[in-house]
Write a structure and sequence with these properties.
The structure is a single chain. The protein is α+β, with helices and mostly antiparallel strands. The strands form 3 sheets. A 6-stranded mixed sheet has the order 5-4-6-3-1-13, with helices on both faces. Strands 10-11-9-12 form a 4-stranded antiparallel sheet. The longest helix is centred in the C-terminal third of the chain and has 25 residues. A hairpin with a 5-residue loop joins strand 7 and strand 8. The chain folds into 2 domains: 198 residues, Ribosomal Protein S5, domain 2, CATH 3.30.230.10; 174 residues, 2-Layer Sandwich (Alpha-Beta Plaits), CATH 3.30.70.890. It binds alpha-D-galactopyranose. The site of alpha-D-galactopyranose has 11 residues, from helix 6. Alpha-D-galactopyranose (GLA) binds next to helix 6.
Length: 385
């Protein structure tokens, strides 16, 4: 039993009594490249990390739903009828939103049984590592099992995204949930966000003596409000002005035409997404050719584009990327939705600790909150334990 399993088991027994019917686990993610491309129906390349949500769950005989977690000690009690009526509040919107979203996949919510669930997570919250998708996908795989719905992984990812969009109210794409369900050891998830086709791309970082260092800048962000939504709207305006269903349908050859149709800011937003989609495709080709140096250069280029064109970086994220560049890292960039959260650096294992220390010293000099550096390993996606 992992530490997470022990914790949810103890919590479940203490609050609900008895042994849970089972345990399920779903990971957070980092994105290697392809940012703000998912809701533009483009390409992304995340991987599932070795930090995850673990849940203990039992179906009930009635329609009551009871939830408890190691981050909020109180048991919350509700029922499936309220979920069906979209009556969500607080953090319970994640698991209940998932229960509701099964109803969009030919699952008759009116005929399902309620459940007791205890939740634990070691994915840092608000850090841009998809702690919310980890909860959603752990609950989704668990309900799929206990309700016997037999949905495929793409449907489960969509269910998580709908919970996020409707129950939580964040207008996000499908990348995080897809990474959490399709993750595999030592591989990234190459997802076409239009067709939802998935390919596993072997990474081989370990074999090359490289590690992926994450630096949590401790600058907190929320995607339910503000910048994320504004960027999404700019992309929609761009696609409409250029007469395409989504920015996915453009290439850099269209940018000259975009210049004539868009204001200066929207042009830069569109340029980020269009060039980022091309970088993802190039990054996959570089990985398949074993060209990690070329892959790393694309990471840096992606960061520059997010900083200058999409304007979603913050000084702390830029500082990590600059420190990584100076330390000779193969590649580095901010990861996730931006406005805070984490930066990642791909570098020789022997250099990771030194970069973490360098960044920590730099943040102290500038009077910023102490960052948290740690390495992550490409890991297996959501599953029953
Ligand atoms: C957040 C969202 C994702 C994606 C990224 C940006 O993580 O949840 O859907 O849009 O931002 O790439």
């Amino acid at each position: 039993m992992t530490a997470g399993t022990e914790r949810v088991r103890a919590l479940f027994q203490d609050r609900f009594g008895g042994e849970p019917a089972g345990f399920w686990r779903a990971p957070g993610r980092v994105n290697l490249i392809g940012e703000h491309t998912d809701y533009n129906e483009g390409f992304v390349l995340p991987f599932a990390i070795d930090r995850a949500t673990t849940i203990a769950l039992s179906p009930r005989e009635d329609r009551v739903v009871r939830l408890v977690s190691t981050f909020d000690d109180a048991v919350v009690e509700t029922d499936l009828d309220r979920a069906a009526g979209r009556d969500f509040s607080g953090w319970t919107a994640y698991p209940l939103g998932v229960a509701w979203a099964f109803g969009e996949h030919a699952v008759d919510l009116g005929a399902q049984r309620g459940f007791d669930v205890a939740i634990d997570s070691d994915v840092p919250v608000g850090a841009g590592l998809s702690s919310s998708a980890a909860i959603e996908m752990a609950v989704a795989v668990a309900l799929d099992d206990v309700w016997g719905t037999g949905l495929d992984r793409t449907a489960l990812a969509r269910i998580g995204q709908r919970a996020e969009n409707i129950a939580v109210g964040a207008p996000t794409g499908i990348m995080d949930q897809s990474a959490s369900v399709f993750g595999q050891r030592d591989a990234a998830v190459f997802l076409d966000c239009r067709s939802l086709a998935v390919e596993q791309v072997p990474l081989g970082f370990d074999a090359a003596g490289l590690v992926l260092l994450v630096v949590d800048t401790k600058v907190e962000h929320s995607h339910a409000t503000g910048g994320y939504r504004e960027r999404r709207e700019a992309c929609e305006r761009g696609a409409a002005a250029l007469g395409v269903p989504a920015l996915r349908d453009l290439t850099s050859a269209d940018l000259a035409r975009a210049e004539a149709l868009l204001d200066e800011v929207d042009l830069r937003r569109v340029r980020h997404v269009v060039t980022e989609d091309e970088r993802v495709v190039d990054a996959v080709a570089a990985l398949r050719a074993g060209d990690l140096a070329g892959f790393g250069r694309l990471m840096y280029a992606s960061h520059d584009s997010m900083r200058d064109d999409f304007e979603i970086s913050v000084p702390q994220l830029d500082a990590v990327v600059e420190a990584a560049r100076e330390a000779g890292a193969v590649g580095a960039r901010m990861t996730g939705g931006g406005f805070g959260g984490c930066a990642i650096a791909l570098l020789p294992a022997a250099d990771a600790q030194r970069l973490g220390e360098r960044v920590t010293a730099l943040f102290a000099e500038r009077g910023w909150r102490a960052p948290v550096p740690f390495t992550v390993i490409p890991s297996e996606g959501a599953r029953a334990l």
